[in-house]
Amino acid sequence: MPNGSPTIDTVRVGGPVEAVNIGAPGWRMSVENTQAGISEKARRRQLPSGAWLDVVAGRAWVEASVPKLLRGVNYPAAPLPDVVEAATMMLEEASGFVRFSEGDPLVNRLDVVSDLPLEDQMTVGTVISTLAALPVMGAQSVTHHLDPTRHKAQTLSKRTKSAGSGTLYDKLRESGNEAARGVLRFEGRERRRSLRAAGIERLSDLDPVLVDLVGRERFKWCGFDTPMLTDQDFWQHLLDARMYDRTRLQVYGFACAQRDLGGISGLFEARRSDYRWRKFLHEFGVLTKADQSMRIDYDEGLVMAA
To answer: Considering the entire predicted model, what is its pTM?
Structure first.
């Protein structure tokens, strides 16, 4: 993805509604808990284009994968101007069932995407498994699994309860072996809270610079730019750092355990010293089983150490 030219997968827009045509067939009913803890009846239906329309608590939202809506497949991701076109199409379709009270719709979800080229298909699994060993810091929730919703593609996700999430996954497997080989997709899913903090509240606020910055900040927040080091390079970092020999051995042992067991940070959160070890890994990098140190760049993909 060129610098400053963000690409998008899914968008969700909408806002307050004045009227809902609940008599039309095709609505699905459910109950949702609002932020205030009040149970509200929710209605959902699929529009003719394949987009989804949701109505809950006096608001309506339309949601779809932009490239899939416009081209039939979700790869490659869509440039930002296509988001406005897709949103306009969905809102026009939804007008047969709801009447919005505001002209400029709110943005409730935006998935900023970067397709990262790697050396080959085998490297995709190596990178995901290595970054999965990065210890959890703060309020992150981490999952590393074969995602059944993505054709069992190897997937690494880091998220918070309400602000958003960042995900790396094997794009070739997710697409049913139709996308390009050796591509690792990063998907930063931003919700309304994080979008508002970045200055994006309505569809008219989708400025390329702001959207690009949101994607880069989520990528960094997930730690996906963390160096992946060989044993030799990692040990050299420890030797260059000012610490006792005993601490060096403890940090190195912890890093080896993270790598070999695929991430075991949850076992270490109780002790203060273990927090220091996790912090060291975030500063230095994580150990990889690859033959050469490397890192992932948001624009260029895989960058091998010199």
So the answer is: 0.90
